Records
---
Amino acid sequence: MSFLNNVITGISLGSIYAIIALGYTMVYGIAKMLNFAHGDVIMVGAYVCFFAMGSFNLPPVVGVLLAVVVCTVLGMVIERLAYKPLRAAPSLAVLITAIGVSYLLQNSAQILWGAATKTFRPIVEGSLTLVPGQLSVSYVAILSVVCCVVVMVGLTLFTGQTKMGKAMRACSEDKGAAQLMGIDVNATISMTFAIGSALAALAGVLMCSAYPVLSPTTGSMPGIRAFTAAVFGGIGSVPGALLGGILLGVIETFGKAYISTDLSDAVVFAVLIIVLLVRPAGLMGKYVPEKV
Amino acid sequence: MLKVNDINVYYGAIHAIKGVSFEVNAGEVVTLIGANGAGKSTILNTVCGLLHSRTGSIEFLGKPLGGTPAHKIVEQGMAHVPEGRRIFLQMTVEENLEMGAYTQPRSTIDPNLERVYDQFPRLKERRKQIAGTLSGGEQQMLAMGRGLMSSPKLLMLDEPSMGLAPILVEQIFDIIRRLHEKGTTILLVEQNAQMALSVADRGYVLETGKIVATGTGQELLRNAAVKKAYLGG
Ligand SMILES: Nc1ncnc2c1ncn2[C@@H]1O[C@H](COP(=O)(O)OP(=O)(O)O)[C@@H](O)[C@H]1O
Ligand SMILES: [Mg+2]
């Protein structure tokens, strides 16, 4: 039973990683940059929901929606102010800027909301008992998996079927050619940040509902793990983010259960390194040789 | 239709286009010929708004384009089929064509698809295929078809014959001739001067960023200097 419990925990944690990883991967696919501030947007989303529910006594659904709205706007503002001016800059400059934005968000959170950790009230409580006394699944875990599935299906339909989604794929392949089609590339990049940040907010609320501690650095480890998941699955690939996220959650949970709690991150990264040695582009990524 | 007036284009300190002027009238096929590196692509990229000229002006359909971003110029009726085709390799043939109609109202997509498929039956057979799996000639047809999807008033083609076998080059130029007969206005950039001049009403010869000769296609074909430089004596 503990094995099954671990599988369930791993998949639900992995679903949250997958939702975060989708944001990383979409932004990378379009803007060709690693948005290291992505994890901190998670934290902002969680705080917004925390205060909406705690200080204003709003229902959880409203808290989640507010978090999504605030983070969507935040993601677009970050892109506009910090990254857009660097569109033609070397990627190292963009990377350092992203790290800077990450610290800016953490420090701002510290000033606004204090460094002390807060106890997050889960948006759903209780659990579903499968085998009395032995096997149960929390509603948060179920909700995480459901959200992940809905997000995946939604994004797949969006990028595969809608005009805007196809324009996004066109931009991710060739921005110059996309412009020649009449696609507004800047607006498309902005929209990608909006979607990614909305997903980060959702992930933040789910994460804090499952592991209810909230502090200004809450987003950084999940951010790094989700980034790992995105690389694991193949950065730029939407199904890759799902696969990478779930695998990462499962590996982390099993590493904690059967190897060592302290070593679980080391286990995760060891697996990542092995995968990348065998498949440099990740599990589902396409290896694209540099064009000459 | 298109009036380019004394433009100067720079890449940083490199002065790539030096005071170039030319025009394209409605219904004409005009060609810009010149060796590799003469500045042909730079001119097209400036006209379509991907690059900007430091001085000079460009007028399209009577309106100045100065500073208009590329995606807005498309809406005004200009289609640019860039060098190297630049089709979306991971999208299907039909999705590529849909992208070509991005600025068009939904109702025009189906009739335009029909028109392009009539023009290029090969694309219709392969409509669900991923574009990256097409042969070079098919990719060029897709690039041209994609350009036509917006029913452009001006179609700009950058070296459509590049890298194609002679028989395919013939096919591509046949298509250009047919488009011309139907009244499409075309600005054609080529290194293959012989072919380009034979379909063009008028041509301009470009050398290191400057126009050095101009005339009708036939005149340029007979021009001794052009013959020597571009037509193998
Ligand atoms: N992105 C660029 N940066 C710097 N120089 C460039 C760039 N693109 C083209 N050039 C230079 O501008 C000149 C004209 O290039 P181009 O317009 O591509 O010529 P063509 O299309 O006639 O072969 C060449 O000397 C080329 O080296
Ligand atoms: Mg060129």
---
Amino acid sequence: MAILEVTGLNKSFSGTAVLSDVGFSLEKGESLAIIGSSGSGKTTLLRCLNFLELPDSGKISVAGETVFDSSDRSAVPERELRRRRLHFGLVFQSFNLFPQYTALENVTLAGRLLARENPGYPRRRAELFAEIDENARALLDSVGLISKLGAYPHELSGGQQQRVAIARALALSPDILCFDEPTSALDPELTGEVLRVIRSLASSHTTMVIVTHEMQFAREVSDKVIFIDGGAIVERGAPEDVFGNPRHERTKRFLERYSG
Amino acid sequence: MPLSTIAATLLRGFGTTCLIFIITLALAAPLGLVVSFGSMSRFAPLRILTRAFVWIIRGSPLMLQMIIIYYGPGLLWSGTALPRFSATITAFTINYAAYFSEIYRGGIEGVPRGQYEAGLVLGMTKTQIFFKITLLQVVKRILPPMSNEIITLVKDTSLARIIAVREIIMEAYSFMAKGLISPLFYAGVFYLIFNGVLQVIFGKAEKKLAYFR
Ligand SMILES: Nc1ncnc2c1ncn2[C@@H]1O[C@H](COP(=O)(O)OP(=O)(O)OP(=O)(O)O)[C@@H](O)[C@H]1O
Ligand SMILES: [Mg+2]
């Protein structure tokens, strides 16, 4: 069964269609690269997956569980919405780390707040927090930042901030981790360290949806590629096919422009 | 004139000054928050009305507002005037709530939307996001403009003498008739000390929040 199944997703902003009938599926452990020119709707798609935007119609299911269905009009309680949201993680283009917290605290904050909902919370608090803390340290170590646990975001480079943001998203063990142009806000010399982290996630079979303008990287790291134009999926397939042998004229033109 | 008489009179005036300051601050700070929510409301009529109100209050002199609030009821519909002190507090509270509301609004709108969204995708509730993420960033942003405004408030209290509230300047001025100008200088010293203390407090608070950007 597919871990992620998106069907018939539509979204428009004040009458302008931004996503038209978008559908795809993703197997557990796969990574999907989404490419497309500016304004084609890539961010909007990720935002719909993370419930930051409400699709006008369509259906999203995770491991067989329907997490969004526009034909189901019953209101979803906030608590349930938050639970569904946790199937997904999102790494933003502009990191969005919390400036008043250290790298470690950025990674532990959400987990600690969620722990309060754990039935044994008040009693097992110390134990739960210790687990969260240990997990966060391990994650920060895995992204190469064990020496920066106590650093505040403004004391970190863009590449380091983005790696903290990745650790922060991983800390809640999402089923699907989404990246929205994770290196676009970085100086060119800093993109490498972030791409390396994502590559290693791919090789350890983290399920990912990656929006990127780094074509070479997309080709290497993904199991599937989607080319989206004007809010619709124009071409999809294995990276060798989409990049090596694109069938559609629009894909060809796009790739010519980006193969800089 | 014995110095102790002067001191007692000035201290009494200073007491009134402090009272105006503290009560205004205690009322206007929370009221300003309510006003700022109004001016950020998604309900357009409320937003427009609130912003018009803020524009009028900030665009006209506090002195004029005091005169209207104190003399207005009697002149316009021959109602009974508020007591002097209450009229002062009313005018000051409305005026400062308007100023504070703009500072709050700037502070709240200045926190990038991405902070809120990052909290959401991490499964936080809106309340958690407000208290754990947004609040401290807002406080840090509003601290410098708030300290300016609060120091202005200390000095503005002297406007109360327009409607004969016996704050420190009015008391000090009363000695002029007896040919004494020194009490006015002493009054000035009171203000300097008061604002000096405030500056130290705000400076400390800003330093405390300097650890992040
Ligand atoms: N909140 C919004 N309100 C109105 N229009 C929006 C909104 N968000 C996005 N759009 C519009 O939707 C279209 C798709 O935007 P989106 O950000 O999804 O594109 P993108 O593919 O991520 O582009 P880029 O590569 O520049 O990041 C754009 O035309 C954009 O102007
Ligand atoms: Mg985008």
